[in-house]
Design brief:
Blueprint (H helix, E strand, L loop, with lengths): L7 E6 L2 H11 L4 E5 L2 E5 L5 E6 L9 E6 L3 H10 L8 E2 L4 E4 L2 E3 L3 E7 L5 E7 L1
Parallel strand pairs: 1-4, 5-10
Antiparallel strand pairs: 2-3, 3-4, 6-7, 7-8, 8-9, 9-10
């Protein structure tokens, strides 16, 4: 069954080198494989994040990938220390508003940022 196996997430990037540097240097992910048109990064639990070269990138503002973490505040602090811009979100209709980059979304605490390929990413700490 597919549910028993790790899964790779593939994000699109019009500037693969900028995205490679972002994930390796700012996010701190280890590169496990690299080819001319894609880079794969190690994530927890046997999962990997792949970034592939694209001529058009993504136009979707929905989250493309989410990391589940134990301490969202610590992760936000580390990302900011590495130069990652954490987004301020204020969506009154949805009841979502960040305070110091973190929102209480009911079942979890969340924070968001965007990579050089304009992929929306989040980190989530379940309550």
């Amino acid at each position: 069954m597919l549910g028993d196996h790790p899964m790779d997430v593939l994000l699109l990037a019009t500037d693969l080198q900028a995205s490679r540097d972002f994930y390796a240097q700012k996010i701190g992910l280890e590169i496990v494989q690299e080819k001319e048109d894609a880079v794969w990064f190690k994530c927890g639990g046997g999962s990997r994040l792949a970034v592939g070269r694209s001529t058009i990138g993504t136009a979707d503002t929905q989250d493309q990938a989410t990391w589940r973490v134990d301490d969202v505040a610590a992760e936000v602090a580390q990302l900011r220390a590495r130069g990652v811009e954490i987004l301020d979100v204020d969506l009154p209709d949805m009841g979502i508003r960040t305070v110091d980059g973190i929102a209480d979304v009911g079942h979890a605490f969340a924070a968001w940022f965007v990579d050089p390929g304009k992929n929306s990413l989040s980190i989530l700490q379940f309550k």
